[in-house]
Amino acid sequence: MLRNSGRGLIACIIATLLATTEASALPSVFRNTSPRATKLSAEQVGKELIPTLSTTAAVYTSGDPRWANATARWQTWNYPNVQLVIEPGSEADVPKIVKYANSYNVPFYTRATGHGSTKTLGKFTGIEISMTQLRGMTILPGEKTALLQGGVFGKEVIQFMWDRGFMTGTGSCGCVSLLGPGLGGGHGRMQGRHGLILDHFVQLNVVLADGSTTTVSEKSNPDLFWAMRGAGHNFGIVTSFEHKIFPRDGDLWYSKIYTFNSTKLEAFHTALNELAKKQIPEIINWSIYLLDPSVSTTEPVIHWAFEYIGGDANLAKPYLAPFEALKPINSVEQLLTYPQIPVAEGTHAEGSLCEKGDQRMQMNAGLKQYNVTAQRQIFELYKKNIFYDPAIQGSVIVMEGYSIQGVTAVDPASTAYALRDDDLLCAAIIRYHPNPKLDAFAIKWASDTRNIWNAGQPTRKLTTYTNYGFGDESLESQYGYEPWRLTKLRALKKKFDPKNKFSYYNGIN
Ligand SMILES: Cc1cc2nc3c(=O)[nH]c(=O)nc-3n(C[C@H](O)[C@H](O)[C@H](O)COP(=O)(O)OP(=O)(O)OC[C@H]3O[C@@H](n4cnc5c(N)ncnc54)[C@H](O)[C@@H]3O)c2cc1C
Ligand SMILES: *[C@@H]1O[C@H](CO)[C@@H](O)[C@H](O)[C@H]1NC(C)=O
Ligand SMILES: *[C@@H]1O[C@H](CO)[C@@H](O)[C@H](O)[C@H]1NC(C)=O
Ligand SMILES: *[C@@H]1O[C@H](CO)[C@@H](O)[C@H](O)[C@H]1NC(C)=O
Ligand SMILES: *[C@@H]1O[C@H](CO)[C@@H](O)[C@H](O)[C@H]1NC(C)=O
Predict the structure, then answer these.
(1) Is pTM beyond 0.85 here?
(2) Which of 199, 208, 270, 464 could be a cystine partner for 477, CB 3.0 to 4.6 Å?
(3) Which of 258, 266, 295, 299 to mutate to test the pocket of ligand 3 (most atoms within 8 A of CB)?
(4) Which CATH number belongs to the domain containing residue 289 in this structure?
(5) Cβ proximity of 250 and 190 under 8 Å
């Protein structure tokens, strides 16, 4: 759905080269910590640690061919400053790596697929623990759950399950891991039926801050299980997890993607508010304001993607009548298998949305319904700002309308995820090739957009989906306003991570 040139890939390589140069010239982590730590190098880790790990475990720095992939980021502004990558070859390697890093007082950071974008990640300097070798998937006896390793990502999980007759909770984008989103929520196409990614967790196998290992579930460490479902990035490394799976449902999905002229904006959002009243778990839909050069180079348009689980177009079409009446500029109708849906909608791993190497100033707001006045203000701001500089024209305003039944079916107090009352997830994503001259402009644009959404719902407290967070939001807006929530999280933090080793992802303090 999002069309873009290949420039992101080039940007990715350039950004990685820059990071590489800085990293080799500046091993500051080792200088800033204990005197012993100054001597730590890939050679030393290779001698002291690697022989104690499984045979495929590896350590490398910027000269290594694996470095570019291991450190590439979706957000190249305030990203983690990685000085050394260690790849565990087995789950049992992870506690050893953590203990080793702790013995030198060197910070560590777990990377699954590198899409984390909050600016709080920029505070990190140290060892990256890359989960890239830990991508095993096993359907467990009984076929109600699967054991997945900590580095698995959407595309391969969707295909693996589909091929074996199952579906499960993942994000919508093929490139993104399950645990990056899942530890803080995890929105996806299955949520109308089965809830967020974290609602699929049955047990997490966790390495704690001190390098000890533990199992976390309703029965074992239930308080930690509560915390890791919503604020999980703050508490440990998940080496593997037992995840609910469901029988594959319908061989085909109905997909229709529309492009509307912005003159239809008010009628469009009014129709969406009406559609929300007919919410059923089978419908997923989302819209984007964008500059689509295949339609017009001077006038931004609205894209709307509608998906219906089950290939029966006759069941889907009644929901579409009000949108057909708006006379779209164009539309594309398809019957697809579930694994093909991300490709049709531009959320596939190879698509522009997933591309690494650019900067993205991203800010979000959770809504109950659309305020048409606010949406018009956001569109007019977009229309003005998108022409500020050609470099910024890949920026988009995204409004996600996932079905919510599976999310609201769960008692909100039963997990640390505090946003079950939000129906719409909206974000401004201001995107450009790294260029400090554009930063202030981009941040203001994202912030103005967020402000308009929030001003449009004066009776609601503003909420922030932590996984789309910019890093300037209040903890309450992410982890909940009820005072007991942060009190409980802080108490658990003292117990399980007293030295605040897991502090880089919208950390609780
Ligand atoms: C293109 C794109 C699509 C997205 N689609 C969705 C979506 O459909 N639904 C949704 O809810 N969100 C989505 N997001 C937001 C997403 O939830 C966050 O960006 C998330 O941080 C990405 O996780 P990652 O593993 O890719 O990133 P990383 O930067 O590798 O990790 C993010 C955070 O998770 C931690 N982490 C990763 N693996 C582990 C582990 N095994 N154990 C403990 N901690 C771990 C990291 O330490 C870090 O703090 C999307 C983001 C992008 C950029
Ligand atoms: C880097 O990742 C790409 C895409 O997943 C893959 O095709 C390539 O082989 C990887 N390169 C290395 C050196 O691992
Ligand atoms: C949108 O509609 C207006 C008014 O009819 C028209 O002038 C304009 O060309 C249309 N834009 C696109 C992109 O079709
Ligand atoms: C479609 O998306 C809108 C918002 O974009 C949301 O309010 C609505 O609930 C969704 N409709 C259905 C039937 O899922
Ligand atoms: C919609 O947004 C406008 C602009 O912020 C605001 O004045 C108005 O009160 C909002 N309407 C509702 C129903 O909240």
Answers:
(1) yes
(2) 464
(3) 299
(4) 3.30.70.1380
(5) no
